[in-house]
Amino acid sequence: MNDLNVHMVRRALPDWVPELRYLPETDSTNRQALAWAREGARHGSLVIADFQTAGRGRLDRRWLAPAGSSLLFSLVLRPMWDPDLLGLISLAAAVALCECLEELDVVAGVKWPNDVLLGSRKVSGILAETSPGVVVLGIGLNVTQRTFPAEIEGSATSLEAHTGRQISRLDVLRNLVLHLANLVDGPAQVIPDRYRRWCATIGRRVRVDAGSGSVEDRAVDIDPTGALILAGGHTVRAGDVIQLR
User: Fold this and answer.
1) Model pLDDT for residues 33-70, shown as the tens digit of each residue
2) Per-residue pLDDT tens for 14-38?
């Protein structure tokens, strides 16, 4: 049974969300939210869909999810943060999701920068896109899937596949938005410390693939902007991180 419709979503959302657009199907909630932001959508406005035909994750990867199986939403955010710290928004989203899942007795971790993992498998994708004066934050969270396409079968999971329990998308949505509101309306400077608690990459040997090549080293910390610091002195601001055994 579909647990999402416009009336259910509106009742579930906290008052922090001033406006809602519910779309049974869309190309991309981020694309819709960016257009809405250009029209003047207020801080906290939310676009949610039951199915995306062109969902995207970080590094322009496709987000694959059957209709009715995932939480797929984007928030229009206008945080009162220094522009140099807006990159922390996606890390804040990963923290909010880990804190939300902890309340469901689900232990999660984060592979830098914002891949939320259950064990070694990815359960969520987070994509933050910046336009002048606004950040659109998109989150896709696998909830009910029990099977996955062959290309991600060994690396993806869902809340129900991991826990064996039925979990309400509406309950997760409400709690996740509350955690996000707390973080994005607070000072940006607290995000790195909150993030370190959940980051599974710090302390691990990693390979970072970036446009200029790749480097292997041990990840030792993140800096105040959320960039990954490697033991040899490299600071990684963007790239694909593989955690090595």
Assistant:
1) 999 999 999 999 999 999 888 555 444 455 566 666 89
2) 999 999 999 999 989 999 999 999 9
Question: In one letter, which amino acid is 225?
Answer: T
Per CATH, domain 6-196 is 3.40.50.1000: no
Fold of the domain spanning 205-243 = SH3 type barrels. (2.30.30)
Lowest mean pLDDT among 4-18, 72-86, 94-108, 189-203: 4-18
Domain boundaries, the chain: 6-196, 205-243
Is 60 exceeded by the pLDDT of residue 161? yes
